[in-house]
Amino acid sequence: MKPQGPSRRDVLALGLAAAPLAAGLNVAGAGSAAARPRAAASSGHPFRDPRLPLDRRIDDLLGRLTRDEKISLLHQYQPAVPRLGIRPFRTGTEALHGVAWLGPATVFPQAVGLATTWNPGLIRRVGAAVGDEARGFQHERPEGWGLNLWAPVVNLLRDPRWGRNEEGYSEDPYLTGVVSTAYGKGLQGDDTRHLKTAPTIKHYLANNTETRRTTSDSVLRPRVLKEYDEAAFRPALTADAVTGVMSAYNLVNGRPATVNPGLNDTVREWAGQDLYNVTDADAPNNLLPGNQDYYATRAEGDAAALRAGIDGFTADNADPAKTVEAIGTALAKGLIDEADLDTAVRHLLGIRFRLGEFDPDGGPYAKIDRSAVDSPAHRALARETACEAVVLLKNDGATLPLDARTVKKVAVVGPLADTLYTDWYSGTLPYGITPLQGVGARLGSAGTVTTSEGVDRVAFRNTATDAYLTAGSGESGTVLAERGGSAGDTARFDVFDWGQGVVTLRSVANGKYVGYDGTVFRNDQAQPNGWYVQQQFVLEEADDGTGTRLIRYAGYETAADWFGDKKYLSTGEDGTLRLATREDAARYEVEVVRDGIDHAVEAVRGADAAVVVVGSMPFINGREDHDRTDLALAAGQSALVKAVRAANPRTVLVLETSYPVTATWEQRHVPAIVWTTHAGQETGHAVAAVLFGDHNPAGRLTQTWYRSADDLPDPLDYDIIGSDRTYLYFRGDPLLPFGHGLSYTTFRYGRPELSARTVDAGGTVTVSVRVTNTGERDGDEVVQLYTHQRTSRDKQPLRQLRGFARVHVKAGRSTTVRLPLRAADLAHWDVTRGRWVVESSVHDVLVGASSRDIRGRAALRVDGETIPPRDLARTTRAADFDDYRGVRIVDESKARGDAVGATGDGAWIVFRDAELGARVRTFSARLANADSGGGTVRVRLGSPDGPVVGTLPVPGTGDRYTYRTVTTRLRGAHGRHDVYLVFSGAMRLSTFSLR
Fold it and tell me: b/e string for 571-607 if b means 16 or more Cβ within 10 A?
């Protein structure tokens, strides 16, 4: 099957870059002429009067719209309403780290790179610049409004194997909240009544895997839901830094996120303004049979989404027909009513009014024009941000910074030395400074730069025909074919290794990559790209023992293997390439024209410093719809690093990746390591500035870097508490810890001082620490505040970030950093009573340079409360267990609620420290069982194998959502115990009580 959602949205959006809103203007008669507002049509309408209160303006316009017009506004491509002078409106301009898909624009570091700055003020300025550029593009597109931006992404980087790791900020919810709030505030602008742009935060909720992404289920126990996944979304919403949320593709506790009731019940409770919530692309269709199979028809699914809190349907590209029909049918059948429709349209209109669309002058941001795009100020900001995003991972023996007075010859080698890569959501680079160019510019005429990409240059000779595989020398290349008997430039290819056998082939003849368009192979691609990355190959050894190779085409291969059997290159009678089975594949002798490692070694030998630049290709090494299965460097790249290190002891490794790398050998053996994400147009200047000390690095990691993927549990295991995941709970020895980053100077921390040693549950203390720059360079230090609760009824994080400050300290000078710490922020979710609780306990207050580099500590006593023993006599939700084995949290009904689902014998849930009193007589449970075979629930005390005090037979109820309350007698149930419910058979348990 084809990938869902983004593939279609994204392909459409790429087309829109060339013809903005052309498709949208053909919707419902919304041609460009009709779309222009006419003064006669709109004169005198109160909704056009900016002096009136917002609610009154919305009421006026809503009352003028017909039912059909209101329905039409629920689709992503909203048509014009010519009789009211209303233009078309389109939701969803991508803007994760710059405006994407609309043409050349400022490209800032990827989102994870923005977060590594740990600088909210800078990130807000970046957001403001992106908002200006969105307005600048909009200024030239008067037919439609594209100012609803789909950014930021706040899904937590819980597992670094996530294909979309570069889109998020951090594995920590607090840091994610700070960064997303800053970026969203920048996008929105500072006007209290108007929006520069309307940012939409995504993807709600628990979306950190791409594997089976529309049908995979993110199972969240209540503490993980409240303390972790929701905690990432809440800050930006409570700060009114975003104007809505986008629902995720995945299921959460068995229910598709598209119909998650939290879109209304939770998200809207956080926000101070009305929100406009949208679905992810094509998600309404995912609800249907053949995918999530949750609703039988679009009418049922769209109605459920609307009731859950969705206001805008992103589906079927620019064609609103299915959405319009579904909503109309839902109204006719009584699945929704006019009030549901009005509520959604009201949310939409609130955004459009605040954007200034209905103001006579367009509002305060309407004058931002095309000059804002790629402006000199934004270029300078991109350079500043790229510099601040660089993280110095290691620097033994003061290898860095390089001294330009003595370092005159620098070798810059590696497959990423002289290129810049963009990702799926990048904008188009207006220019690009590569690491090689940045170093060369920094050295100037006084220095010398040598280089090599360190990749093999090869020729492919067909052993059956002696013909060579050849490409074209023109700018657009030509169709690849076996044409000649010599290995000239047209028959030579540079082989780039991206790991796990996947390579790309760049033609020497014109410097373009070989790609496939579904019919022929051609050397015409500037970089690997596209939804289907059709520039991927695997050089597979033949089985005949001759050392010949088969060229496997890997552009369509996915984890789902929907493309079928693997395909190999073969040749037709005219010599052109075609796809064939392995048995019919052409056999090639791979002739090495130039050994990449030898070439690189030659370049670095004798250099004053060797800079080797390796890393990831964002379209290959994990991306949307493709998770990573490994975190190691490509084998060829690792071999290059080892060879360069052996040839030149003063080797600096520059890692340019979108995610953490298990660079264990490199961390042990390479004296200096620098990491940057794909940092946009100014990457090379930033790298050079750090290497030569023009910028003293202060970037900090926002994720744990593990030594091996074996340190991680299954990617689909979202229970960070149970699986000891992320820096919060990980007990192992990381390669590099959360918050890590070095400087060219050193800092001494004084003893942290608390403004009070004791605080009540509603109080705040200030943590003060004096930081002294003890080195010879001015620099920034990121002072990080963590806490650890010493005693608790429940398992607590080993350490948790509570605050930070990036401060600039001159050499030899000191500054005092003061960080507020609210006792309320030390609360955790109490599953026994379903609410937040601040327990009475002593907290270690930890101040340091990373989560594992603690420089000082103090003790804070918090006077909160003690969680009482569980009272299981009252109705208890089964999902509020303390621990579990062999069960899943599932949807209690399609509309709302959680239950516990058991599918096999021996599964259990436990409710710790329950006070049963002198005597408990009965066990009552609300259960559903679609299996007519029945089952049992045994009540045991103390352990899953403890004494049985009651056995409850579970009858079949005919359906997984049909519940019955069943009661059985208990014997010997009294006192204070851990109560285990042990399951036999398949069933769902919603609630229970012991009385």
Answer: beeebebbbbeeeebbbbbbeeeeebbebbbebbeeb
* pLDDT at res. 3: 37
Residue 911 shares a structural domain with residue 955:
yes
The CATH number of whichever domain residue 236 belongs to comes to: 3.20.20.300
Kind of pairing between the strands at 758-760 and 588-594:
unpaired
Q: How far is residue 296's CA from residue 315's CA, in Å, rounded to a whole number?
A: 17
Residues of the chain with pLDDT under 50: 1-42, 559-560, 562
Same structural domain for residues 827 and 783?
yes
Query: Residues 958, 905: one domain?
Result: yes
What Cα–Cα distance (Å) separates residue 520 from each residue in 473, 506, 512, 534, 565? Answer: 17, 16, 15, 11, 19
Residue at which a domain ends, from 570, 586, 602: 586
- Report the largest interatomic distance among the alpha carbons of the chain, rounded to a whole angstrom: 94
Q: Are 461 and 468 in contact (CB under 8 A)?
A: yes
Number of domains observed in the structure of the chain = 4
Q: What are phi and psi of 423, to 5 degrees?
A: -115, -175
Query: What pLDDT is attached to residue 931?
Result: 83
Supply angle C-alpha 288, 289, 290, rounded to 5.
115
Please check whether residues 185 and 213 belong to one and the same domain: yes
Domain ends where: 371, 396, 422?
Answer: 371
721 in a domain, yes or no?
no
- Please tell me the predicted confidence (pLDDT) of residue 20: 29
Using CA atoms of 865, 867, 868, 870 in order, give the dihedral in degrees to the nearest 10: 160
**Per DSSP, what are the bridge partners of residue 493?**
458, 507
Q: What angle do CA 348, 349, 351 make, to 5 degrees?
A: 70
* Rounded to 5°, angle at Cα 183 from 276 and 252: 50
Q: What pLDDT, on a 0 to 100 scale, did the predictor assign at position 93?
A: 95
780 part of a folded domain: yes
The H-assigned helical ranges of 250-295 are 262-265, 267-270, 283-286
Q: Are residues 292 and 356 in the same domain?
A: yes
Calpha distance 686→385 (Å, rounded): 9
891 and 810 assigned to the same domain: no
Integer Cα distance of 866 and 564 in angstroms: 59
Phi, psi of 176 (to 5 degrees): -60, -40
- Reply yes or no: is the peptide bond before residue 740 cis, omega within 30 of 0: no
The residue segments making up the domain with residue 758 are 745-863
719 in a domain, yes or no?
A: no
DSSP3 helix / strand / coil % (the chain, rounded to 5):
25, 30, 45
Residue 647: what are its φ and ψ, rounded to 5°?
-85, -25
Contact 393, 223 (CB under 8 A): no
Full-model pTM: 0.94
Task: State the burial class of residue 223 (Cβ atoms within 10 Å of its Cβ: 0-12, 13-18, 19+).
Answer: buried
Of 344, 424, 415, nearest to 74 by C-alpha is 344
Q: Give the Cα separation of 780 and 813 in Å (integer).
A: 12
Distance CA 859, CA 970 (A): 46
Shared-domain flag, residues 244 and 323: yes
What local confidence, expressed as pLDDT, does residue 487 receive?
Answer: 85
Alpha helices in 884-948 (DSSP H): none
Distance of CA 550 to the CA centre of its chain: 36
Same domain, residue pair 142 and 239: yes
Angle CA 852–856–862, to nearest 5: 100
Residue 393 is assigned to a structural domain of this protein: no
Q: How far apart are CA 392 and CA 896, in angstroms?
A: 47
Predicted pLDDT of residue 42: 45
Give the domain CATH number at 855.
2.60.40.10
In the prediction, which pLDDT does 30 show? Answer: 33
Sign of CA pseudo-dihedral 113, 117, 122, 123: positive
Q: How far is CA 38 from CA 32, 52, 84, 907, in A?
A: 12, 21, 8, 67
CATH number of the domain where residue 480 is located: 2.80.10.50
**What pLDDT is attached to residue 558?**
54
